Amino acid sequence: MSVALLVIGAVGMIAPFLWMFTTSLRDASHAYDLPPQWLPTEWDWSNYAGAVSGPVPILRNMLNSAVIAIAVSVGMIITAPMAGYAFAKLQFPGRNSIFVGLLSSLMVPAQVTIIPLFLLMRTFGLLDNPLSLILPGITGALGVFLLRQFFLGLPQEIIDAARMDGATAWQTYRLIALPLAKNAVSTLGVITFLGSWNAYFAPSIFLNSTDTATLPLGLVLMLGPYGAGNVAQVMAATTIAIAPALIVFLVAQRWIIASLTQSAVKG
Amino acid sequence: MTLTAPAVKQPPAPLKGRGGRPGHQGAARRREALTGYLFTAPTVIGFLVFVLGPLIAALYLSLTKYNILTAPKFVGLDNYARMFRDERLATTYGNTVLYVAAAVVLINGFALLFAVLINQRLPRALTYVFRSAYFFPYLVALVYVSIIWQALFQKDTGILNYYLTAMGGERIDWLNSSEFSKVSVIIVDTWRNVGFAMLIFVAALQEVPKDMVEAARMDGANEWQVFRRIVLPMISQATFFNITITIIGAFQIYESIIVLTRGGPGDASRSVVMYIAEVAFNKFDMGYASAIAVTLFLIIMLVTIVQFRLRKSWVNNE
């Protein structure tokens, strides 16, 4: 009985993706045939070719998304562990108040800062430029918080021993502490990448041409108002767009789940 | 490596806590402080430039009339007073509160139900498959899942209506009727977020001591009593976390509506964030848009603070 409920729920979760994939492989004229087909009956990849050669430069948009997401995650996995380590393991005046100040930024919704950020980017000529999304993305309180939690759990003796052996603060961090944080840093990198890859709100405001658009913007353009676009091609493009999430999901599901749930339950 | 420059000049003093020799201690402490500031500098600068500065600027802009072309003109609380007369704001805030209420009840209700079911003694592989299936939509961009759903919701060609009519029901105009446009938004929001909340509940349920549950059963408690009196209080921290996250998330609901209904018909499904974006970036009424955004900020801050305070008093921390 309870398994039946779970199966119904799971089918509901996966069915829309299955429909997307099946539709992407059907000839456009059959895309809306009813009753719906759940498994691919034909393996026609022409919609994929059509999607990437249509009026919206989907491949270009994908490249834009990738550049931004990679830049943002690389920046984040450099800045956040350093700050997290300092807040956990180094003594300096104002340490706790700075940390609390940073944490309070988690309460500031993107919608309240977007107007001043738009004006800022406009002043520096960064509108319609990937830097408008990269620069604000390479630092962030959440990553610092996650890494601080990790470093707090690191025994102080390890740090002290390295320092006694004559390592500088940087060496202690870079050669001893950071390698131990490999899993936490990878998780942060993956979460940051996906967050950027999936982002819509800020890109929709900072970017306004099809050549600079990120993939989510490109797909919305392709869909057109009121879903008027060629549905088979739209689903082909969506399948491509979802691929990174699927890969992350298959490869890294376990530790993403672990790190996401940890903070809530252990608090 | 350039970051180490100040620290490399001399061999570091033996840093044995605070107990070293006084002369070396001061220097070592200063060096450690400097390192601390250097390590946190990028994050702090990012915070000042991209969060705190803009936040202060938004508070200031909310007190001005500003259309980008001419300099902001200070108007005091006019923008805030204007909100009370703005019917579109009332509509969009009303819709948003509905989305929040639905999110809290539906996401957490379904999440808890599925979490309890998954937490039973199931074969390991099955647990894994279910957990994965429920979690996957959460990793996919809301824009992408909304694109899929808007096709499923189509009145004449969508498969939802196909099955509905096949079962003898009426076709529903999911995206273009003023009631069902909201329902569609709620369905997609619930469907996408239930998996994350469920994982939080599953993790919390696994922390509930089995012997406690067994003991209660031995004492003759039925399943509902065990759940209500033992399990629910033990997972209160996770519940609280989930409710807070769903409230904050639903107040910011945006792109799913853009894809599904474009806010329509009229303003029937428009959220307050869509309204802010429209006022700011279509009408360039930056001052008024900032004022609305500030109200959203205050709500989210309040929810966060309340959760932080209550978490200490209410929640069973064990």
From TrEMBL, chain A:
It is a multi-pass membrane protein. Residues 62-252 form the ABC transmembrane type-1 domain. It comes from the Bacteria. It holds the Pfam family BPD_transp_1. It is found in: Cell membrane. Keywords: Cell membrane, Membrane, Transmembrane, Transmembrane helix, Transport. The chain crosses the membrane at residues 66-87, 99-121, 133-154, 175-197, 231-252. Its main location: membrane. One of its GO terms (cellular component) is plasma membrane. PROSITE patterns: ABC_TM1. GO terms for biological process: transmembrane transport. PANTHER family: ABC TRANSPORTER PERMEASE PROTEIN MG189-RELATED, ABC TRANSPORTER PERMEASE PROTEIN MG189-RELATED-RELATED. Belongs to the binding-protein-dependent transport system permease family. This is Binding-protein-dependent transport systems inner membrane component. It comes from Arthrobacter nitrophenolicus.
UniProtKB/TrEMBL annotation, chain B:
GO terms for cellular component: plasma membrane. InterPro entries: ABC_transporter_permease (IPR051393), MetI-like (IPR000515), MetI-like_sf (IPR035906). It is found in: Cell membrane. It is a multi-pass membrane protein. The chain crosses the membrane at residues 37-63, 97-117, 129-152, 190-209, 230-254, 288-308. Residues 93-307 form the ABC transmembrane type-1 domain. Keywords: Cell membrane, Membrane, Transmembrane, Transmembrane helix, Transport. It holds the Pfam family BPD_transp_1. GO terms for biological process: transmembrane transport. The keyword Repressor does not apply. It comes from the Bacteria. Its main location: membrane. Belongs to the binding-protein-dependent transport system permease family. PANTHER family: ABC TRANSPORTER PERMEASE PROTEIN, ABC TRANSPORTER PERMEASE PROTEIN YESP-RELATED. This is Binding-protein-dependent transporters inner membrane component. It comes from Arthrobacter nitrophenolicus.
